[in-house]
Every structure is written in structure tokens, then in C-alpha cells.
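Figure caption, in words: inputs first, then the predicted bound structure.
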Amino acid sequence: MRPLTVMIRWCSTLALALVFLQIKAETSSSFMLSDACPPGFELSAEQQCLLVNFYQLYNSVQGRGVGGTQTSLPKYRDGFSPQQIDLGRILFFDPALSKDGSMSCASCHQPDKGFSDGLARSKGIDGRQLTRSAPSLWNVAFLDKFYWDARANTLEEQAIGPLFDANEMANTPEQLLETLNGNSDYLALFKQTYPSRSQIELDQVVSALTAFQSSLISLNSRYDRYAHGYHEALNKNEIAGLNVFRSFVARCAECHQPPLFTNNQIAVIGVPEKDGIPFDIGAQQTYQAAKLRGGFKVPTLRNITKTKPYMHAGNFDDLREAVEFYNKGRGHAIPEGETLQIHWHIWEPNLTEHELDLIVAFLGTLTDEAFTPKVPASVPSGLSPVDANYQQQHNKNNQKLLSRAGE
Ligand code: HEC
Ligand code: HEC
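Bound structure (heme C present):
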């Protein structure tokens, strides 16, 4: 053989071997991240997932009149890579993020409960009683204040809370990073997501969680079809309910402003605590402002039928009761000895029983879970992903952890 031919053959063998090695390196983890954006997003030339939504066609946040339907969206978070979003999904369900491998974010934010947990007040590690309820995570991409008392301003800042709170997931930054950096699957997944970084650090963890949560978009309910001009999407009662909701008598839409059904503000409305539960001063603490005593963030009403019980501490068991609260008179439930500065849009609308029913019927049209992400079948820690079947998975994971400790 001529030397040139030998060299070409040799080179192509080498190239093949390299390709093989490359494939091997990429598949050395059994976890692959999606390179496509979730539904509702479009991949840009810069490999960023950008939100695509009808509401972007409207150019005013004010709309026409109170509760105008064709109002635009406020500023929002998007532009994450498909890999960041998918990595965030895996982290969200992995109980390895908690101190003892017993709970994940999804323990308290369960996809089948509107990303809430069905409890009046959530329970943290070892069943520790928290003081407030888990809010829904739908449409958090559009918020600029987090927690009932608005004490965090970004999703990144928020995520630090549950991870390291002794009553919630009770982890420490050191232990969390040790767990993740000690796991070859996570190392590979973070490398795919953040190629320029050699180690997993906390900012990557919280930005992936933020990316995932920002993909939870619910803006395609029957109400939305109606808002965009398809009148038949709602029935007569539901339309009547919408009209009561946004009337200047009921004033619901002043605070629960379409299209998000929140105006991202804090309001003091004077919801009574359940028997035996101490009064929660809410946003007074955050802003050190007496006029915000008992003030809470106006929650979205999207997917509201999925997230009972209602209010900051599950104060009302069902939706009818929550709506009826507004009809009982301004400040009717202020505890003795408290002075609260109730918001001026809370007054005495004197709605009829029928009108209250109509509002409840309307709220049912705000349900849209079409973009519910998949719960991962398995997660890199080897533990069972924890969400709704918390107790069952917890027991399974305890056995896994015990047998690991004995290895
Ligand atoms: C033990 C239950 C529990 C766990 C675990 C948990 N959360 Fe929460 N989450 C809550 C509760 C309760 C609140 C409200 C607390 C408050 O307002 O004081 C909350 C609030 C939030 C909010 C604010 C939403 C809003 O509208 O203001 C976000 C976002 C959030 N959690 C995301 C996460 C993420 C991400 C994780 C995992 C890292 C997580 N949560 C783990 C119970 C939990
Ligand atoms: C002044 C602003 C304001 C007005 C007006 C208002 N709300 Fe609210 N709404 C809030 C705040 C703040 C909360 C949370 C209060 C808390 O947790 O203590 C809330 C909570 C709710 C909840 C429970 C949501 C959840 O996730 O638990 C429902 C349902 C609700 N409002 C419906 C209505 C209806 C119906 C009307 C009109 C009759 C109305 N709201 C008028 C501010 C307002």
C-alpha cells in the first residue's frame, strides 16, 4: 500500500474511534436533557426559549375599563435554554435536594394540585408544621414579588428559602453541592446545561429551578378563548359571573386583574384566621410598615379550582366560602384589639346569593393545565421522584437510603 493510503485509512479509523468516544462520553449518563422548548415557547437563534402568547398582541396593561379582557402581560421571565428548563424539572422532583432525601419541591407544589399541596398550612421535613399554605406556581414567570408577604423579589432568591429553611427541606448549601457534585449523572447534566463551568454551584441550581418554574404557563383556559374573541367559549352564567367579577360593585378585578388575575400588589383585606391560629401580620414584617399589617400578596386566581383550601393559611375550605367572605362587610372579621387599614376596594357589595354563585361559576373557567410538565420517571439520585404520593414515596426512599447506609 502507498503511504498516503495507509495514512488516510489510519486517520479515518482514528476519526471513527473519536466519534465513538464522543458518543460514549455523551451517553455516559443515562439522563439526557431535552433540546426542545416546552409548549408555549419558541426556540430562538440564540437557543433561548421565548414565550409565545396571544396576550403579546395587546399593547396596554390597562385594557378598556375595569377588568378589560384584552390587556397585555407585565414584564416576565423567559429566555432560558431548553436544557436549563429540563434540568430544573429534574431538580424540582428530586428529593436529594432535601437534607435527608425525604422531600422535593414537588412535595408541596404538586402538579396535580395546581402546584399546591391541598393543605391549609404546608408540612416540612419530619412533618413540621409551617404557618402558611403553598401557593400555586402557575404563571410565576409574571410575578416580581414572592411569598404571601412578598419577602423575595426573584425566583432565584425565593428558591434559597425552602432549600435551607430548617422547617422545610432543611439542607445546607455545602451538603447540597456535595450531593450534586458527587453524582456523575448530575455532573453530566449540569455540563450539558452550563458547558463553561466545571463544578456545580448554587447559582446554577437556582437558575435551573427558575427556568423550569418560568415554563409553567397557564393562559389558554376557556376564559382566555373568550377574551380573545371567541364568545361561545363561555356559557351564559359564566359570562354573567365575569361581569359581576369585574363590575364596580364587586371590584374583584381591581386586584385580581386580567389576564393574570393578580395585579402583583399587596392588599390588606382582613381574612380571619382559623380557630386557634395566631394572627399573621403578613407584609408588615417585610416592609416594616404598620399600614401593611395583615397585608398579603394578591394571589392569582388561575387554576383556582385546583388549589383549595384558600388564602394564606387555608382560611377557607372551599371557593364559595372564599368568595362569600367579600360580601360580609368591610373588615367584618378583624380580630378584637387589631386595627387594620383595609384596602379601599374592599367594601360591602351586597351581592345576591345568585351573584356569588355566578362568580364561582366564572372562576371555574380559569382552569388550564394543558402545559403540565411530565413528572420524571426517575431522577439522578436514584431516589423515587417525590410529588403527590409523598408518604408512599417517602417510605420507599427511606428503605433505599437505609440500604445505602448499610452498603
Ligand atoms: C415544605 C413545603 C414546601 C417545599 C418543600 C417547597 N415549598 Fe415553595 N412554598 C411553600 C410555602 C408554604 C410557601 C409560602 C410561604 C410564605 O409565603 O411564607 C411557598 C412559596 C413558594 C413560592 C412563591 C410563590 C408565590 O406566588 O409567591 C415559590 C416560587 C416556591 N415556593 C417554589 C419552591 C421551590 C422551587 C421549591 C424547591 C426548592 C419549594 N418551593 C419547596 C411550601 C414549600
Ligand atoms: C383589595 C384587593 C382585592 C380585592 C378587591 C379582591 N381580592 Fe381576592 N384576594 C386579595 C388578597 C390580598 C388575597 C389573599 C388574602 C389572604 O390570603 O389573606 C385574596 C384572595 C382571594 C382568593 C383566594 C385565592 C387563593 O389562592 O387562596 C379568592 C378566591 C379571591 N381572592 C377572590 C376574590 C373575589 C371573588 C373578589 C371580588 C368579590 C376579590 N377576590 C376581591 C385581594 C383582593
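Residues 14-28 have pLDDT under 50 and may be disordered.
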